Amino acid sequence: KSANPQWREQFDFHYFSDRKDMLDIEVWRKDNKKHEELLGTCQVDITALPMKQTNRLELPLEKHPGSLLMLIAVAPCTGVSISDLCVCPLGDSSERQQISQRYCIKNSFRDIKDIGFLQVKVLKAVDLLAADFSGKSDPFCVLELGNDMLQTHTVYKNLNPEWNKVFTFPVKDIHDVLEVTVFDEDGDKPPDFLGKVAIPLLSV
């Protein structure tokens, strides 16, 4: 019930190449669970923003009244990575020793925000639901921790896909929950849901 909503939410997005990237933003209005209406869209050219500073942007919504006020900061990724199993970041014993030293009790208060990091090896899925008429699916896996999100590549025409990828997240809140969701890629349409599991960090 507001024409001037304040969300005050922060989201982290990661990209790992020098390609040109546009941030697409949509504003939606909900009447109830069944009815939704698009109130406007806008785009931000990430490559045009100055690095290592917070950019205050007021973005008019295209073809609709209103605007969005956003703070966007572009900075090099730290603590986030996607790699193959053969080059797993924790595979080196000397690196493991350095990490143990970094997070030992005597260094606990050196950097309060540096809680630690989570490493997830996504190996494979078994007996997935068939989402296509061919009796197969085109599955990919999405990992979310807080407002961080990374995903695997798509394995086409397969109900038993193997991804063999290693994902590393910085931990910002030890009470966060790792959510792992499997989707079926469906071309230009939204992906189909194939299943999900939630793992509280405190259970690891």
Automatic annotation (TrEMBL):
MF-aspect GO terms: calcium ion binding
PROSITE patterns the UniProt entry points to: C2
Superkingdom of this protein's organism: Eukaryota
UniProt topology in membrane: Multi-pass membrane protein
Subcellular location per the Swiss-Prot or TrEMBL entry: Membrane
One GO term of the biological process aspect: regulation of neurotransmitter secretion
C2 domain span: 1-59, 93-204
Similarity remark: Belongs to the MCTP family.
Name the record gives this protein: MCTP2 protein
Lineage start: Eukaryota, Metazoa, Chordata, Craniata, Vertebrata
